[in-house]
Amino acid sequence: MGDQKIKDIILGIIATVAPDADVSSVKGEVRLRDQLDLDSMDFLDIVMELRKRFKIEVPKEEYPQLATLDSCVSYLGPKLEAVASL
Amino acid sequence: MSDLERVVITGVGLTSPNGATLEAFRRNLLGGVSGITEMETRFMGRVLAGVCRFDELKYQGRKERRRGTRAGSISIYCAREALNHAGIDPAGVDRSRVGTFIGITEHGTVETENEIDVIRQYDYDTKFWSHHHNPRTVANNPAGEVTVNLGLHGPHYTIGAACAAGNAGLIQGVQMLRLGEVDLAIAGGVSEAIHSFGIFASFASEDALASHEDPTKASRPFDKARNGIVVSEGGGLFVLERLRDAKRRGAPIVAEVIGYAMNSDAADPVVPDRQRVAECMTLAIGRAGIEPKDVSIVNTHATATVIGDEQEAAAVRQVFGDCRDVYINNTKSFIGHAMGAAGVLELAGNLGSFDDGIVHATINVTELDETCAMRNLVLNEPQDIGRVDIIMNNSFGMLGTNSAVVVKRYGG
User: Fold this and answer.
1) Exposure winner among B100, B113, B326, B381, fewest CB in 10 A?
2) HSE-up (13 A, CA, CB side) for residue B260
3) What pLDDT, in 10s, does the model give residues A14-64?
4) How far is CA B338 from CA B73, B99, B162, B307, B333, in A?
5) Measuring CA to CA, which residue among B75, B83, B31 is closest to residue B249?
6) What residues in B contact A52, CB-CB < 8 Å?
7) Does A59 touch chain B (CB under 8 A)?
8) Which residues does chain A have within 8 Å of residue B127's beta carbon, measured at their own beta carbons?
9) Would the ipTM clear 0.90, i.e. be above it?
10) CB-based contact, A44 to chain B, within 8 Å
11) What's the number of CA atoms in the CB half-sphere (13 Å) around residue B110?
């Protein structure tokens, strides 16, 4: 699974959680919260969607890994790869 | 009573199964248009219901709607429509002095059923239970969503009063204005009841859920063949102001709230008590400083249950039996039972009478049940009575909560 595919998955989840947000121009290195109207409840929604769609659990202490799109790719990439290979 | 104590309605916002504006609602009530349709519900298949069709995104973003509740969405729509009708820009008022008081029959059953359905898909693993559940199901949710949407900082809460709740919300608004606690009240009631299968199932188990091959004929208060309630969703919120303030800003005054009353049967949980109902109406009329003969329209609560309609009709005969010029009607025959919205929504549907002098009908009465006969019950076709000065709405609810609200044409 390439990085672009992983980005698309993450942006797809964000588009579900924040349907009014424009996810087409999200910058990889900037905190998602600083470029989109996202709050703590939205991040919990993202965690829930990962659980529902991919059975991926994100422990509370690892929430900072979801701060930017790039960190999401780094952190979730191996998890999504593992799910895809099942 | 001074202009500081007199409270007037200056804006009406509503959504009803047969109209999402005051004008459309009134037009359909006069035109005999029912809002009852079939809809699919969980576990029960097709049921008859009053479904509202308003644009949820007119005043909400999609994320706000996704996080919130249907009751919250109905409330926001009605509150915004009411403020627009009143000619009030929320940015132009002291938001700390605006109170939001919304009657609900129930809240949280819809959201709880939805979450159970979600975790059912994951073998009842509660990790899949939404973190939005608590803010969605706290009892103040519908009123709270209004304050968040509008940025209002005055008090907000809901009032649980079963199917008398809409009137209870209105009464609370009047009282808070008279107490000086707020300068503007957004008050009334809402219901999202049709999204809970449990409400339909419970009425069905009680043998109190209406059935008819033609959905538009299912809600038939006072008819001999009535067989129960049609559950509906809806909302009715009024902007209320002290008369002094309304005059000062040159507000359009829709009506004056001149009397109200609430009391309790303290008897059966579901069967109304005609004596207490009569006492409630009499108390409201007395507080309004009028006599029964002065009322132009009694807008009844009747839900089309066999016993409930009989009890209310007996109470109406007791209070108004000798009055030649009092006319009786029922709005649920068009829209079903909008639960927490019922009182204010039905009252709103009659406010047009101040302008057109017409009493909307009680439709679907093929054969009047003689136990429900009342003088001047307006059956099936609207009746032009020339002039309407005072309207009384009745709303009663389970556990024996009764309400009556009296409003008057504003005449200075």
Assistant:
1) B381
2) 23
3) 999 999 999 999 999 999 999 998 999 999 999 999 999 999 999 999 999
4) 15, 23, 11, 19, 11
5) B83
6) 122, 128
7) no
8) 51
9) yes
10) yes
11) 21
